[in-house]
Write a structure and sequence with these properties.
Helix content: 25-40%
Radius of gyration: 29 Å
Distance between the termini: 60 Å
Number of strands: 16
Strand content: 25-35%
Shape: elongated
Largest sheet: 5 strands, mixed
Order of helices and strands: HHEHEHEEEEEEEHEEEEEEE
Length: 284
């Protein structure tokens, strides 16, 4: 049982480290390096720097500790410049243990670096807002996405889940609904893709007014899976919109156009969240 808990915690730490932003990841590695050398330097200093051959024992105690710290750094990284060496059983055993820990630490760090660089990434951007827009003779929930690098996405599939607080028997409970899409799968994703959930009798958002979206606690969860032809792997990404991030009565502007000689289609990434307000009553 303890072994399973250890394996789970180790795996969780690895996932967190791989998922951290780059600057946080580098900060964690740097802090670990500084702290581990500080610990070993403290032990060397406690044993006595006279057991480190070649070290200059002149200067204040802080200077002596600094020399022990840099000896620790040289041992931890297995650099070993040679002008300082351990003398005696305790310092020799400690430096041997530190060298082993250093080798294992750098092996783990190398694995984490490789995991971060080899991790598949879906280069997809989502619109900042979801919209309640006119759709045929009614209205629909719409949100938009687009690739933002020279990547070929095929077999793109999307799923939308609605989480909402509703009242049942006088109590607030959380309910989750799978929202039907006009198209939940497309063969090729090269331009923008607007996900459309028709708000009809089958929709949990049916008869929702603007005031309902403002007063009800709800969140729209979006999951997209697609095949990245460049890296020959399946990638996935997700996002979410709270009801406060939903614009009632708006429609997206077209975000692509033809070039002057009409031989190419230009995708305008800066228009991903471009929309205009409309009066839904005129369309319903």
């Amino acid at each position: 049982m303890k072994s399973e808990a250890w394996d789970l915690s180790t795996e969780l730490v690895g996932i967190i480290m791989i998922s951290l932003p780059r600057w946080k990841f580098m900060t964690v590695l740097l802090l670990f390096y500084v702290v581990i050398n500080f610990v070993f330097a403290t032990i060397y200093y406690a044993i006595g720097i006279e057991y480190l051959n070649g070290i200059d024992q002149n200067g204040s105690e802080w200077v002596k500790f600094g020399k022990a710290y840099f000896f620790s750094a040289q041992t931890f990284t297995t650099v070993g410049y040679g002008h300082i060496s351990p003398n005696g059983f305790l310092t020799s055993a400690l430096s041997a243990a530190e060298a082993l820990i250093g080798l294992l630490s750098f092996a783990i760090a190398t694995g984490l670096f490789f995991g971060r660089f080899s991790k598949p990434t879906a280069f997809l951007k989502f619109s900042h807002n979801a919209l309640i827009a006119p759709y045929k003779d009614g209205k629909a929930l719409m949100l938009r996405m687009t690739p933002y690098k020279n990547t070929n996405f095929t077999d793109a599939e999307a799923k939308i889940t609605l989480g909402m607080s509703v009242e049942e028997n006088g109590k607030e409970v959380n309910k989750f609904y799978s929202l039907d899409l006009e198209f939940h799968k497309i063969n090729l994703l090269t331009l923008s893709w607007t996900l459309v959930h028709p708000i009809n009798e089958k929709s949990p958002l049916f008869q929702f007014t603007k005031e309902d979206f403002e007063n009800v606690e709800g969140e729209i969860l979006v999951f997209v899976k697609t095949f990245d032809d460049m890296f020959s792997t399946t990638v996935a990404t997700s996002t979410s919109y709270t009801f406060k991030e939903l614009i009632y009565g708006a429609k997206f502007d077209l975000m692509y156009s033809e070039n002057e000689d009409k031989t190419k289609t230009i995708l305008h990434l800066d228009k991903l969240n471009s929309f205009q307000l409309v009066d839904l009553d005129k369309f319903i």
